[in-house]
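Can anyone check this?
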Amino acid sequence: MANFKTMIRTLMFVFVVLFCATTFYYYTEQGNARAEANVPKLPDFEHTNNQQFIDNVVQCVNYIEHNTTDVYPVNLELLLAQAALESGWGTSRFATEGNNLFGIRTWKKDVAHLLPQGVEKWPGWGVKVFASKCDSVKYYIELLNNHSAYEEFRELRETTNDSMKLIKTLDKFSTTIDYDKRVARMILRIRKLEEEK
């Protein structure tokens, strides 16, 4: 009888240990699967309409913010509007051949670049080529966060996140005189797209 009780206790102990181990394994695997599902992924930037382009850029920003510890976020509406305006919704030659969504220039001839069509001789600048479109987004964010030309932007950002006010501080981003108005119109256009979503 004592051996029978010992055997029952041992079986109960083994059952409890197996139950706990199985439960732990199951919930750990479920947690890992949920965590992996929530990790932003790099977009493929395949798009057939403007909304898909915006969604790709947003996915890229989420990926950068999730995977980079030293990136201070910039106003998303402003970033999206400039990307759409500067790249023709991702269809410009600089966007498709150079992965440059912002028309970012380089003044160094030895940096990978594209020249405007019809220009064959180095004019003192080129449009920077990036390994991926997300690399150009990351560079844009770093530019606004670190370049001395955008100090006013960073100061205003401390008091407001209003994209219509912030765009007025980026007059050095483009040589186009009414650049702020063009970006403001693009912001309104993107807001309308988002409302229709």
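Reply from J.R.: I decoded it. Strands lie at 105-106, 113-114, 126-128.
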